[in-house]
């Protein structure tokens, strides 16, 4: 199966990232959870767009860093992910981490959801954070930003 990962933007500039490296990393993270990558679409946007998406599709009236629409089937992960670069930047500043590092965390967060990891129930947030840390360590093993 050929994986297809699209990177688009709405109201913001496409972040300067190594997209070939990201594709490989995402595939390796998926494989570590016994999944394969099908079609993934990343839509980078501003905070107003993510608020609009949150209101329209989830009936939530708040800003967030990522909204993922899971269309996975069996072991094949696929779906659309909206990422607010404004919120990622604010979160990075609040957490005292580099913007690029926080963006990587958010990029892989949606993939981890598609791999079956949740973060809303009791104890689930810690499981998600551990999975994010493991994924970031895998990224780091492939070289530095």
Give descriptors for this structure.
Collagenase (Catalytic Domain); 145 residues; alpha/beta
What order do the helices and strands come in, and which of them pair?
Elements: E1 4-10, H1 19-32, E2 36-45, H2 47-58, E3 66-70, E4 76-84, H3 85-95, H4 99-114, H5 124-141
Helix pairs in contact: 3-4, 4-5
Textual characterization of the structure:
With 145 residues, the chain is an alpha/beta fold. The chain has one domain: Metalloproteases ("zincins"), catalytic domain (Collagenase (Catalytic Domain), 3-Layer(aba) Sandwich). It is built from 5 helices and 4 strands, in the order E-H-E-H-E-E-H-H-H. The protein has helices spanning 19-32, 47-58, 85-95, 99-114, 124-141; strands spanning 4-10, 36-45, 66-70, 76-84. Strands 1-2-4-3 form a 4-stranded mixed sheet, sandwiched between helices. The radius of gyration is 14 Å and the shape is globular. The model has no long low-confidence stretch (mean pLDDT 95).
């Amino acid at each position: 199966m050929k994986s297809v990962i699209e990177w688009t933007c709405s109201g913001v500039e496409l972040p300067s990232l190594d997209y070939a490296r990201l594709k490989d990393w995402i595939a390796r993270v998926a494989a570590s959870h016994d999944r394969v990558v099908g079609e993934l679409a990343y839509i980078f946007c501003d905070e107003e767009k993510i608020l609009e998406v949150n209101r329209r599709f989830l009936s939530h009236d708040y800003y967030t860093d990522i909204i993922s629409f899971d269309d996975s089937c069996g072991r094949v992960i696929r779906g659309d992910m909206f990422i607010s670069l404004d919120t990622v930047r604010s979160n990075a500043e609040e957490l005292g981490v580099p913007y690029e590092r926080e963006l990587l965390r958010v990029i892989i967060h949606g993939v981890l959801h598609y791999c079956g990891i949740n973060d809303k129930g009791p104890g689930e947030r810690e499981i998600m954070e551990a999975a994010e840390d493991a994924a970031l360590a895998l990224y780091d093993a492939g070289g530095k930003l």
